[in-house]
Amino acid sequence: MFATYLIGLREGLEATLVVSILVAFLVKSQRRDRLPQVWAGVGLAVALSVLFGWLIEYTSTSLLSRSEDRELFEAITSVAAVVFVTWMIFWMRRAARTIAGELRGKLTEALAVGSLAVAGMAFLAVIREGLETALIFYSAAQGAAGDSGPLLALIGGIATAVVLGVLLYASALRINLSKFFTWTGALLILVAAGILKYGVHDFQEAGVLPGLNDLAFDITGALDPSAWYAALLAGMFNVTPAPTVLETIAWVAYAVPVLLLFLRPARRKPAPAATTTTVTERGADTGAEAEAASTPQRA
């Protein structure tokens, strides 16, 4: 359940920071009249994300009658989730320093167009996180059918993210967002490696890939599947005591190079000839830009 909590916290905080930046900009620009359009866009994005999650689950449980088809569907969604996770963590690392300025620029353009453009801006800013969350949650919670624990953990993560976002906006809390996204990014890479491993297993059960009975190792005697720590490892990173050869190869081939790329030291750019002094905005900018300016970012 920790894995789904982490997914909700990470994705939820990204969406919350985006909304906080938009709201802070409108408040400081004396454009509170556009706040209803922002919340309308956010609400529509959340509703469509929930609908997307339900559609994935309905497709798997109701539209696909054969077990082989369900296994194949779950395998494909697992691979798609890994792609989204990988893209998301590297995008956030690269965009952390400029996201506030870019969002304010786009919102300025939207204000010039009209209320629908403002709502569309807020919608597009949140819908990506929502769709990613639905897809990643479905893939991470495979095997937990009938168990409400993963869903409650996801909701708990999102609720924690919303609370953190509100406190950051109110300047009541300051956290090192650079370190937060680095540590959660590294953990999510391990979660994604487990999702990919699960997807390979589903491909094997669907008959697409061979080697379902070819085990890389079997440490069931040392890692009792019924033990709490075994359940914790399986739930977080899909570490199982008797994986197949292809599962193990997929886990290692993804986790090792992606972790190395993500954690490599940043390349420092030469300082510009002229510097411009900016005033950090209160609220969302206090959490996003101040931390980015004071904390070295990883490339």
State the main characteristics.
about 300 residues; elongated
Which SSEs are present, and which pair or pack?
Layout: H1 2-28, H2 35-63, H3 67-95, H4 99-113, H5 115-140, H6 149-169, H7 177-205, H8 228-237, H9 245-263, H10 284-294
Helix pairs in contact: 1-4, 1-5, 1-6, 1-7, 1-10, 2-5, 3-5, 3-7, 4-5, 7-9
Structure write-up:
This protein is an all-alpha fold. It is 72% helix and 0% strand. The protein has ten helices and no strands. It has helices at residues 2-28, 35-63, 67-95, 99-113, 115-140, 149-169, 177-205, 228-237, 245-263, 284-294. Helix 1 (2-28) crosses helix 4 and helix 1 packs parallel to helix 6. The model is unreliable at 274-299 (pLDDT under 50).
Order of helices and strands: HHHHHHHHHH
Total count of helical runs of at least 4 residues: 10
- Stretches where pLDDT is under 50 for at least 5 consecutive residues are 274-299
Mean pLDDT comes to 79
- N/C terminus separation: 30 Å
Strand fraction equals: under 5%
Radius of gyration: 21 Å
Major sheet: size, sense and barrel closure? none
- Which structural class best describes the helix and strand composition? mainly alpha
**What level of helicity do the residues show?**
over 70%
How many strand units? Answer: 0
Q: Estimate the global geometry from the Cα principal axes.
A: elongated
